[in-house]
Design a protein that fits this description.
The complex is a heterodimer of chains A (114) and B (113).
Chain A lengths: L3 E4 L2 E4 L5 E7 L5 E7 L5 E9 L2 E4 L6 E3 L9 E3 L8 E8 L9 E2 L3 E5 L1
Parallel strand pairs in A: 2-11
Antiparallel strand pairs in A: 1-3, 3-8, 4-5, 4-9, 5-6, 7-8, 9-10, 9-11
Chain B lengths: L2 E4 L4 E4 L4 E8 L5 E7 L6 E7 L4 E4 L2 E6 L4 E6 L8 E7 L9 E2 L3 E6 L1
Parallel strand pairs in B: 2-11
Antiparallel strand pairs in B: 1-3, 3-8, 4-5, 4-9, 6-7, 7-8, 9-10, 9-11
The chains are: A mainly beta (114), B mainly beta (113).
């Protein structure tokens, strides 16, 4: 079945540590996205990529980094510079540029601080 | 400033009633508006899309309206069931060729048996 796979489902970070969240899609979508969701809040865009080897900052990119070396993969690194990383992280993909295409989401990674 | 707003208070209704959720936006002119369902600990799932030239869109027990004059979309679930309990998010395309969607914060729906 086509879809988006995020791993791990739960992740714990120690102080000063970088951690990487995995996102893989087999939908052959060009665009991929990372969102952060905090309790009672909406989705906030961290980074997005419209094509391989290209990505743009979203609204809250500070303390995060991404890469897009393959169409199927868009990993997110939460760096030690992100002082409040505890949140639910969602990866999504989308096939087209115009607004009539829905986003397809993975089931998220919940990141906590040890 | 540009905003997309949904009622932050949970909507609590009796099974069998119609649930109506509201999405308001300001300073956008979207050609499309989308609705998603999110269950706890899961990613959002796409439900319906409505275009600016469509006043109403239906899918089974779901109905969405889109009023570009009021800058508002309404999402209705008729004959609601406890299984409809979830958070519902609206999203719009800012029409800036960025591939982005702008999401509201969602409204939690609780359907009592």
């Amino acid at each position: 079945d086509g879809g988006i796979t995020q791993s791990p489902k739960y992740l714990f970070r120690k102080e000063g540590q970088n951690v990487t969240l995995s996102c893989e899609q087999n939908l052959n979508h060009d665009a991929m996205y990372w969102y952060r969701q905090d309790p009672g809040q909406g989705l906030r865009l961290i980074y997005y990529s419209q094509i391989v080897n290209d990505f743009q900052k979203g609204d809250i990119a500070e303390g995060y980094s991404v890469s897009r070396e393959k169409k199927e993969s868009f990993p997110l690194t939460v760096t030690s510079a992100q002082k409040n990383p505890t949140a639910f992280y969602l990866c999504a993909s989308r096939s087209g540029v115009i607004g009539n295409q829905p986003q397809h989401f993975g089931d998220g990674t919940r990141l906590s601080i040890l | 400033s540009q905003k997309i707003e949904q009622n932050s208070e949970a909507l609590n209704i009796q099974e069998g009633k119609t649930a109506t959720l509201t999405c308001n936006y300001t300073n956008y002119s979207p050609a499309y508006l989308q609705w998603y369902r999110q269950d706890p600990g899961r990613g959002p799932v796409f439900l319906l899309l409505i275009r600016e030239n469509e006043k109403e869109k239906r899918k089974e027990r779901l109905k969405v309206t889109f009023d570009t004059t009021l800058k508002q979309s309404l999402f209705h679930i008729t004959a609601s069931q406890p299984a409809d309990s979830a958070t519902y998010l609206c999203a719009l395309d800012p029409m800036d060729s960025s591939y982005k969607l702008i999401f509201g914060s969602g409204t939690r729906l609780l359907v009592r048996p």
